Amino acid sequence: MSLQASSQSIGMQKCTDEETFYMHCRAAYLTVFRSSLASITSKHQLCRVLQQAGRNPSQATLNKHWTPRTTKLNFDDFCEIVKNERPTEAHELMRAFRKMDINGDGYISHSELHIVLTSVSTASLKLLESTAEQCQIAALERLEADAKLKRQNFGNELDSPPKSLASTAVTVPQPPHKTEPDITLKKGTDWHHTCMKGSFFLEEDGGITSLQYRLTVPQTATVYLTIRPLNLSQRLEKPSSWMSVDTAVFVVSGKDTKEDSTLVCFTESRDKEKCCWKGELSAGTYCLLPFTTGCRLRKRTRNSVSKPVTLVNRTDTGELDLTRDFRGALSDIFEVIDLDGNGLLSLEEYNFFELRTSGENCDEEAWAVCKENFDTRKNQLSRQGFMELNLMEASERGGDPTDLWVTLEAMGYNRNLEMVEACPFLIDVYCEEGQCTLQPVSLESGHRILNTALQRSITARSDVKTLRGQENVLVYTYRGEHRISTVIANKTNQKVTVHVNNEQSKNCSSSRGMSVFAVEVPARTKMVCQHVLPINEHQEWTYSCVESIIPCQ
């Protein structure tokens, strides 16, 4: 996607020393690695990337930063090292040049170079040989990385050249839809497929809850990953209302803690309503974190309903029965909580539903009673059995719909039986080598690992600017194909309040739900400021944001 500076741009702002420093660090990092998300994994790599940053690290310097207990360093670690190590001075280079320029004419001739190379010590020769070997290794690694990148066919380049650091107004033309990537790349090779359903749910505080998933890759393989809203409508001409909600998946590896998790990739290429990623994953276990910005799934004003939809009525014989509308809603709920799509509810799937609606678990004993009284197949609850279970609960309360509405509202329904505060989705995983497995693992709101992965995805691939009057408060702006996201980094030792103004933006919707707002960022922390999407994806949208510090009172 191409991004152009808008005619409404607020003008170019001179880069500060801090911005220039980080821009140079990133440029040096990307000469060695394909992405600033990549980690330094050896002392050899640390030496190479420091040399690219204009440092000349001695063995003692390398040993100081790469101890026997060091396993990896990330981009932020690298920036701190560069900040603390003295760059090679020009006069040092000139002194070395003059030693080689024997006749002092300002040039190093072939004969002068020959004299130096044939008279230097063995140690210096080893240094030169090591340097040549490092260059060869770097060239081979770059060729291998380029070849792998072509094979992986990422939707976007992993690290695009930085745009103007000062410009905050951009016009985003509507990009054409990409064709769906071919998942039968090799003739005679079958792609192993697994899928899992889920849903985003809005909480009372405006937060968004979703299941997370565990993906197990048995061996290094090419993987094609997609997520999309799940259409529950039976009418082709009228799809479900949430089909325009944006969806994405972040893939992280490591333990279930913020400190140990590593962002591996995230879906950002679009194919109609699908969000896709295709690349190589090493053998191992990964956590899949579904994500939506909240720009299109947000709390709505609850208009008072004079007469809510009837859920239960009585038949001609006086018996209680579920109404047709309520059965339709229950059928859609069944479709959402049937995570593996086999048409039946396992105990695990039913418990995700119970945790969502009542906060409780159904134990094995209660499940056995359930199977005895309601329609089951293969020891799992059928759709008919799910209806019977809800009818029993309504009958136990004499037809009082109060508890039924509690369940429906927890699943995102309003009193008109419209699902307005939830977005069901479907995750598909195609694996070229071996069968991947996908399992639901938790139901959490504001997952700390997702928040960390989101921040890293923004800061590693974004423009950065400092706020006027406070060079230690940085704003990172990520511009993807269909989303703009910002992170504010407060490097000071005190809380700062940032005023954010989007009033000059056009055809834009902010995840904050307003054009002007303030963000409090605690000392020495980073915080996602906002996400921005186009209101109408078929029209151009102009993002123009002005951030400023609110002075302390």
UniProtKB/TrEMBL annotation:
One of its GO terms (cellular component) is ciliary membrane. This is Phosphoglucomutase 1. One of its GO terms (biological process) is positive regulation of protein localization to ciliary membrane. It is found in: Membrane. The keyword Translocase does not apply. InterPro entries: EF-hand-dom_pair, EF_Hand_1_Ca_BS, EF_hand_dom, Miro-EF-hand_domain. One of its GO terms (molecular function) is calcium ion binding. The keyword Transmembrane helix does not apply. Gene3D superfamilies: EF-hand. Keywords: Calcium, Membrane, Metal-binding, Repeat. Residues 88-123 form the EF-hand domain. Signal peptide: none annotated. Residues 156-184 are annotated as: Disordered. SUPFAM superfamilies: EF-hand.
